[in-house]
Specification:
Layout (H helix, E strand, L loop, with lengths): L5 E2 H7 L5 H9 L3 E3 L2 E2 L6 E2 L5 E3 L2 E2 L7 E6 L30 E2 L8 E7 L2 H8 L7 E8 L4 H9 L2 E2 L2 E2 L4 E8 L4 E8 L6 H8 L3 E10 L12 E3 L2 H9 L1
Parallel strand pairs: 9-15
Antiparallel strand pairs: 1-4, 2-3, 2-5, 5-6, 7-9, 7-16, 8-9, 10-14, 10-15, 11-12, 13-14
Helix pairs in contact: 1-2
Length: about 240
Amino acid sequence: MDDNRERLQKVMAQAGVASRRKCEEIITSGRVKVNGIVVTELGTKVSVKDVVTVDDKALDKESLVYYVLNKPTGYLTAVSDKLGRRTVMDLISQEDKKERIFPVGRLDYDTSGVLLLTNDGTLSYRLTKSSKEVEKTYHARLDGIIDQTAVTKLIKGVMIDGVMTKRAKIEVLDIDKKNNSCLISLTITEGRNRQVRKMCDAVGFKVKKLKRIAFGGITTENLKVGEYRPLKPHEIKVLYSL
């Protein structure tokens, strides 16, 4: 699959032509050209290099933007919520939301830390598809003091939801004997649902507090909880190289 190409109707919808369903009707009616050639196939994919016109008018190309947010707990990782709950988009200014940004992957409601947001569908796909194995590092405060047996199991992989996890990196950062607790650093290359919590459960330890401190090398350094910033050009380049 070519990571740099997206379905024509999706590109049109992102450019504000119409809803995706309506864009499909516009395509099949013969009103769309790609590089000067009429296209009516809905499966057609285009890249940023292709010139797409609707009724002979070129699409307005959306500026690509990239942010890192220091997500607080108590926010859904979603663009909107039907039940009216708070989402990470509530932390983004109206001006920055004009580019129709969305979160890259998921970060649980009760998990804080690094969350990337962008309107770059190509990069989002690259970072979240399982074959890429992008490293994500978490700090987890556990109920209980982890032993070497559990550490070894986490490194080698444990069974969650009927599937073994891939190899992980783990470091014990702090042991609090008084409160029977410890802090570990866990680096994984998958992004399965509530994976870190389930991995720790699988070796007999409940996660009391969880924070993602890095995603593909991007951190929340110098960002207060709830704050965000644009990614720097070299950070975007690194993410595309993963």
